[in-house]
Amino acid sequence: MSSPTSATHRPAESASALRVTLASPLHRGATVAMFLSGLGFSAAAPQIALFLVNDLHVSLASAGLFYLTSLTAPVAGYLIGARSDRTGRRLGLFRWCAVAGFLGWLGIAGSTQAWMPFVISAIVLAFAGAAGSQLFAAVHDDLRADGTDRADDVVSIVRMALTAGWIVGPVAGAVLAAAVSPRAMLVATALCTLAQIIPLGFLRDTTVPVHIGPEHVVRLRRMLPLLAFTGLYVLVYAGEPIKYAYLPIYLHDDLRLPAVVSGATIGIQPLVELLLMPVAVVVARRVGAMRLMVAGAASGVGANLCFALTGNVFGMFAGQFLMGGVWGVFAALGIIVAQRLLPDAVATASAIFLSSTAIASALGGLTGGVGISVLGLPLVFLAPAAFGVIAAAGLAVMSRR
């Protein structure tokens, strides 16, 4: 098959990452698609519980269970990834997953019974989440075919677009839900999900599939390093649902910070993350990606200790800066390392890694619920700090091997 990158104009190895990205229709399209993905999903994520409670009259306890429906995403992601590695149809599967996401969010927007969003999310949206992993696999294939030395930088730019969408989305979703209705906001999410297809146009996949036939099925033993790395990433990520659930409450009820200060404290993390992502790629070339992730996990420990022990606004800002460092490293390098740990099945690797956030969210939610009952605020943040210590130690072992 022909490559999405023009055969008459391949970027030179010395070209900047931005030039390499702009020179390829695939890389440009993937960047825009990832922004739309982040924009749509992050607009709906903070509002879905309110929609369930206010529009469908679901109890608060039941609304909280909605987030457990994402536990089906890793299974769906693995199935899509394995299919992609057998057939090489990255972009075709990406388009089908985007359509599934459109239908899923549209179905939730039109739900009239309390059970409908739960079933739709567990079955339909589980496959929608695999769209991003297929794009990253397609980008990986194209960069490998081009032989550019800026591959990591290009992947980082595509991943930065997803982060940028997550910065804009929550504000846009809140404004649209308040100005029109939550259902209109969910329809907008559906349209953003479908619109991911547009920037890719009619591009076809870069390479002919290599993994054909049952003899090429990925064996569990080959996957063990990837599974170990993903498990450690889950421990790092598990602190996020705890932070987003309880840090705003702590800032408002215990520290009694003004709304503008509280908002600035919460909002500083994604900005720091976005600024540090390209820096992380450069530093990783010098010290190694896995070693840098050890430092990232350690920063998460420091951040949660700031939340748990400082008790003032300066400690909260310091914690958020450190947390921005965590995700500046893991957001930029996580997908790159995952693909390197399973180089012959990059779609499977991408799907396993990206869908693991569902498991992390469930772990964080369970830990937060138990921790808040046992430890209270702010000591509940000691739990994700402990997770971070385990993750840092595990990553240190992997970096030496």
| Mean pLDDT value | 86
Q: What's the alpha carbon Rg, rounded to whole Å? A: 21 Å
- Summarize the main sheet: none
Q: What's the oligomerization state?
A: single chain
First-last Cα distance: 37 Å
Beta-sheet strand percentage?
under 5%
Q: Give the SSE order as H and E letters.
A: HHHHHHHHHHHHHHHHHH
Overall 3D shape: globular
How many β-strand stretches?
Answer: 0
User: Helix tally?
Assistant: 18
Roughly what percent helix? over 70%
Structural class: mainly alpha
Structure description:
- By secondary structure, this protein is an all-alpha fold.
- 78% of the residues lie in helices and 0% in strands.
Descriptive tags:
401 residues, globular, disordered N terminus, mainly alpha
Summarize the structure in short.
Helix content is 78%, strand content 0%.
Any chance you could write out the topology, listing elements then pairs?
Elements: H1 17-23, H2 25-44, H3 48-54, H4 60-64, H5 73-87, H6 90-109, H7 115-128, H8 131-146, H9 151-179, H10 182-195, H11 197-200, H12 220-237, H13 239-254, H14 259-287, H15 289-309, H16 313-341, H17 346-374, H18 382-400
Helix pairs in contact: 1-2, 1-9, 2-8, 2-9, 2-10, 5-7, 5-17, 6-7, 6-8, 6-10, 8-17, 9-10, 9-14, 9-16, 12-16, 12-17, 12-18, 13-17, 14-15, 14-16, 15-16, 15-18, 16-17
